[in-house]
Amino acid sequence: MSTEFQGEKALLSTISIPSGVLFYGPPGCGKTMAALCLGSSLSLPMINVRAANVLDKWLGGSEAAIRSLFSRARSAAPCILFFDEIDAIASNRGTDGESVDVMSRLLSTLLNELDGVNSEGQANVLVVACTNRIDDLDAALIRPGRLAEHICLQPPDENDAREIL
């Protein structure tokens, strides 16, 4: 490792980062691009996950995939773990006794990993997620301590669009 990189890594280890960031807004407004730019501007390794690709047809496979992703992120720290379209795996849990289904188990695994990702000795993993359906996300996911920072991205208005073009 270069001395410069070791110095940057040491500096990053002293900075308190939020537990997670959620970009939300209508389709096509640049949420994914903003998350990728965040990783690029911070010069951190980024584990990029399309949330729907986590789903597995075998019992326990999806939960194992989530645990594996967080394990990789902790090993690569400091890094960014990015979930695109997180609503595919973190939608509201049912209120009519559906707590045993696959999606509830998957969400529970995700919440447990989010709780442990920046615990003592495991710091410097920033979890970033994007969705265009924030109202469909489970309330436990977006509470403080998990994806606590919410950033709304809107498409440009007419004047901004002209300026861009």
UniProtKB/TrEMBL annotation:
Residue spans crossing the bilayer: none
PROSITE patterns registered for this protein in UniProt: AAA (PS00674)
Domain of life: Eukaryota
UniProt KW Isomerase keyword: no
Keyword terms of this UniProt record: ATP-binding, Nucleotide-binding
Family matches, as Gene3D superfamilies: 1.10.8.60, P-loop containing nucleotide triphosphate hydrolases
Domain AAA+ ATPase: 17-157
Family: Belongs to the AAA ATPase family.
Protein name (record): AAA+ ATPase domain-containing protein
